[in-house]
Amino acid sequence: MQWPFSSSFVAACRAEAANTSPPGRCCRDILTLEDDAHEGRALIQPVLRRGRRVAVAPSLQQIRRYAHEQLQRLPASLTALEPSGVGYPVEIAESVLELAAQADRLHR
């Protein structure tokens, strides 16, 4: 599927990404609007608000551990050295598609 909108559109509409996979696995994500109700674990976490840090910066060891844990959750088809041709499914919520269509109509 072709990405239907620019990164500036996603930032302007306050998008949220969530992983809707069972615990311990990564098999599907969803892109929604910030206020949409959805299942899953939020993938976008605030770091700054109004120029001020809102969370403690993790240590290098914590970052490495987190990266390793996340890589372990990916399907083998995405971590293999040879491409498998199998992508990672990302669903785009209907609310995001509707907002993108509204923006397209306004900017024609």
> What structural class should be given to the helix and strand makeup?
alpha+beta
Instruction: Give the amount of beta strand, in percent.
Output: 15-25%
* Number of helices, counting only DSSP H or I runs of 4 residues or more: 4
Characterize the largest beta sheet: strand count, sense, and whether it forms a barrel: 4 strands, mixed
Give the terminus-to-terminus CA distance: 23 Å
Helix content, binned percent: 25-40%
Average of the residue pLDDT scores: 80
Number of E strands: 6
Biggest sheet, strands in spatial order? Answer: 3-1-2-6
Shape type: globular
H/E order of the elements? HEEEEEHHEH
Report the C-alpha radius of gyration, rounded: 17 Å
Low-confidence stretches: none
Organism: Stutzerimonas frequens
InterPro entries: NAPRTase_C, Nicotinate_pribotase-like_C
Protein name: Nicotinate phosphoribosyltransferase C-terminal domain-containing protein
Domain Nicotinate phosphoribosyltransferase C-terminal: 41-98
Brief overview, please?
This protein is an alpha+beta fold. 34% of the residues lie in helices and 18% in strands.
Write up what this structure looks like.
It comes from Stutzerimonas frequens. This is Nicotinate phosphoribosyltransferase C-terminal domain-containing protein. Residues 41-98 form the Nicotinate phosphoribosyltransferase C-terminal domain. This protein has helices at residues 7-12, 60-73, 76-79, 94-106; strands at 15-19, 29-33, 41-42, 48-49, 52-53, 90-92. A hairpin with a 2-residue loop joins strand 4 and strand 5. It starts with 6 loop residues before the first helix and ends with a helix. The model has no long low-confidence stretch (mean pLDDT 80). It has 4 helices and 6 strands. It has a 4-stranded mixed sheet with strand order 3-1-2-6. Strands 4-5 form a two-stranded antiparallel sheet. It is α+β, with helices and mostly antiparallel strands and 108 residues long.
